[in-house]
Specification:
The complex is a heterodimer. Chain A has one domain: Non-ribosomal Peptide Synthetase Peptidyl Carrier Protein, Chain A. Chain A is globular. Chain A starts with 8 loop residues before the first helix and ends with a helix. Chain A has 3 helices and no strands. By secondary structure, chain A is mainly α. By secondary structure, chain B is of the alpha/beta class. Chain B has 2 domains: 115 residues, Peroxisomal Thiolase, Chain A, domain 1; 147 residues, Peroxisomal Thiolase, Chain A, domain 1, CATH 3.40.47.10. Chain B is 34% helix and 20% strand. Chain B contains 9 helices and 10 strands. In chain B, the strands form 3 sheets. Chain B has a 4-stranded mixed beta sheet, with helices on both faces. The longest helix of chain B has 23 residues. Chain B is globular. The two termini of chain B are 22 Å apart. The chains are: A mainly alpha, B alpha/beta. Chains A and B meet through α2 of A and α6 and α7 of B.
């Protein structure tokens, strides 16, 4: 994996802020997505936006609204990594 | 009010707008035929005074109108017909479980129609390449289980709710955004247009967030996305022709406008095409 293009957590949170209008300060790695009113459709919207932002395809199979921001971020990182091997 | 009622009215208005009293073929895109057998198109043709003309249904749920448009364009291109009435019509309320709030508030009944005629490739209104696709592995994400040969031939007892429409919203959302974006991007490339040159995206009117996500994915700004679902709901195969009529009436569509049509529906099916909007007589 090319670490220089690995998306940062900050870049990921910017997508959430831009897409869902949730201030970035409210989204920490341990933040449970549904606790900041990120519902199942909103999670999909974030993932789709991340696909475009980072030029990758992300499986929705492991997306879980009961998970944390860090969980979702790691799915994005993994997808970007697979795309670059 | 049945699908044939709606279809006949829309068909009559389209023929009036086109200034024609006859067509060679009637194509009806619908998920809600008057009966499982026969197709509804022959009845619609009969009611329009077109008895004897070939008439058939196209079944691709929310992508039905684009499938119908593609078939009609092919018939004209092969010189099998000169003028074809293409209708998208639904009485979707007849499929909805009144107790299911996840679907009951989303869908509407309606019909829209166009007359497609032979012409030159470069003319406004010319229907060229229509990008179409399907994935039968997704049959369960948009479905009505009962009433067909699958349950009957297997001797399966009908479960409560099988006769009603059901949808897996999250999966539909994901697939719709991806497939509509991909198909529309292909249609753009075929037309030789850049996203910035698109005047309007007329997408199947299922969900505003889907349309917005597609616009973002394709770099088509929100003000260039036609929104009609707030007025009529999701009307499945009637969705795109109704949205076209709405956009025409508000001036969002004007002669020469570059338009992308895109849809995703049960099957699963998807499709998209690019066309330049012609001058249309309002009726």
């Amino acid at each position: 994996m090319n670490n220089s293009s690995r998306p940062s957590f900050e870049q990921f949170v910017l997508i959430i802020e831009d897409k869902l209008k949730i201030p970035r300060e409210q989204v920490q790695p341990e933040t449970v997505l549904k606790d900041v009113e990120i519902d199942s459709i909103a999670v999909i919207e974030v993932v789709l936006a991340a696909e475009k932002r980072f030029g990758t395809s992300i499986s929705m199979d492991d997306v879980d609204v009961d998970g944390t921001a860090e969980d979702l971020y790691q799915l994005v990182v993994a997808a970007v990594g697979v795309g670059q091997t | 009010m049945s699908t044939s009622d709606l279809a006949a009215e829309a068909g009559a208005r389209a023929m009036d707008s086109a200034g024609v009293k006859d067509v060679d073929v009637v194509v009806l895109a619908t998920t809600t035929p008057d009966r499982p057998c026969p197709a509804t198109a022959p009845l619609v043709a009969h009611r329009l005074g077109l008895t004897g003309r070939p008439a058939f249904d196209v079944s691709a749920v929310c992508t039905g109108f684009l499938y119908g448009l593609s078939v009609a364009a092919g018939l004209i291109a092969s010189a099998a017909a000169e003028q074809i009435l293409v209708i998208g019509a639904e009485a979707f309320s007849t499929l909805i479980d009144p107790g299911d709030r996840t679907t009951g508030v989303l869908f509407g009944d309606g019909a829209g129609a166009v007359v497609l005629r032979a012409g030159d490739r470069g003319e406004p209104g010319a229907v060229g390449w229509v990008e179409l696709g399907s994935d039968g592995s997704l049959a369960d994400i948009i479905t009505v289980r009962a009433g067909g040969s699958q349950q009957r031939s297997a001797g399966e007892p009908e479960s409560p709710g099988d006769c009603y429409f059901s949808m897996r919203s999250k999966e539909v959302f994901t697939h719709a955004v991806r497939r509509m974006s991909e198909a529309a991007t292909t249609a753009l490339a075929r037309a030789g247009w850049r996203p910035g040159e698109v005047d309007r995206l007329v997408g199947h009117q299922a969900n505003l967030r889907i349309l917005q996500a597609i616009g973002e994915r394709m770099d088509i700004s929100a003000e260039r996305i036609v929104v009609h679902l707030d007025r009529v709901g999701n009307t499945a195969a009637a969705s795109i022709p109704l949205a076209l009529d709405h956009a025409q009436s508000t001036g969002e569509l004007f002669p020469g406008a570059r338009v992308i049509l895109a849809a995703f529906g049960g099957g699963a099916t998807w499709g998209a095409t690019a066309l330049t909007w012609p001058a249309v007589k309002a009726v």
